Amino acid sequence: MIRRQGYAILDGAPENGVRTPAAPVRDRSGQVVAGVTLAMHSGRTSAARARRELLPRLRAAVAAIETDLRITDRAPDAPPGTATHR
């Protein structure tokens, strides 16, 4: 279900009272290379509100990161995790 939705909202992880919406960041080949997570007190923000108000912003941030990843590529001799701008 999480893969199909493209995000997860966890309650009580990593700690009780914490709500964490998260979405994967994919490189140009579609491989998950990172994730973006928000953390909030679950008593102040309902899961419905997080989904309605925060998730669109989270997904916009992920889209911007993925756009940046599409215009960069690892240099042939560079170690993993480094890139050159094209």
Determine the strand fraction and express it as a percent band: 25-35%
Radius of gyration: 15 Å
| Alpha-beta content class | alpha+beta
Q: Give the overall shape, derived from the CA principal axes.
A: elongated
In whole angstroms, the N-to-C terminal distance is 35 Å
Q: How many DSSP E strands?
A: 6
Query: Kindly state the mean pLDDT as a whole number?
Result: 82
Q: Which parts are unreliable, with pLDDT below 50 for 5 consecutive residues or more?
A: none
Helix content: 25-40%
Task: Give me the secondary-structure topology.
Blueprint: H1 2-5, E1 8-11, E2 18-26, E3 32-37, E4 40-41, H2 47-70, E5 72-73, E6 84-85
Antiparallel strand pairs: 1-2, 2-3, 2-4, 5-6
Q: Can you walk me through this structure?
A:
This protein has 86 residues and is of the alpha+beta class. It is built from 2 helices and 6 strands; from the N terminus they run H-E-E-E-E-H-E-E. The protein has helices spanning 2-5, 47-70; strands at residues 8-11, 18-26, 32-37, 40-41, 72-73, 84-85. The strands form 2 sheets. Strands 1, 2, 3 and 4 form a 4-stranded antiparallel beta sheet that branches. Strand 2 and strand 3 (32-37) form a beta hairpin. The mean pLDDT is 82.
